[in-house]
């Protein structure tokens, strides 16, 4: 059986993986009171090739949440997560 690894739940910028890997999916839920932008880069820093961008906005009576299937897109340098503002979202990144 083929599986994937997870970053675990993160609320701040983080290096997820160093080196080549495949981005499987990104799961995010808004935990702050204002809109939050989540980005995943093919890099070991918050710059370079942006693989995905999620913008979470507050909704009445329920948290904004999203699951984004990346279909195993190849990242050659690594995976780096940014969350702005920090602590605005809880995010997990799945990769293999």
Count of the domains: 1
Mean pLDDT: 94
Distance between the termini: 13 Å
- What is the count of helical runs? 0
CATH architecture: Sandwich
Read across the widest sheet, the strand sequence of neighbours is: 1-8-3-6
Structural class: mainly beta
Runs with pLDDT <50, length 5+?
Answer: none
Overall geometry comes to globular
Radius of gyration, in angstroms, nearest whole number: 13 Å
User: CATH topology, what is it called?
Assistant: Jelly Rolls
Query: How many E-type strands?
Result: 8
Query: Mind telling me the CATH class?
Result: Mainly Beta
Summarize the structure.
This protein has strands at residues 5-6, 14-18, 21-30, 36-42, 49-56, 65-75, 78-84, 89-95. With 96 residues, it is mainly β. It has a four-stranded antiparallel β-sheet with strand order 1-8-3-6, with no helix packed on it. Strands 2-7-4-5 form a four-stranded antiparallel β-sheet, with no helix packed on it.
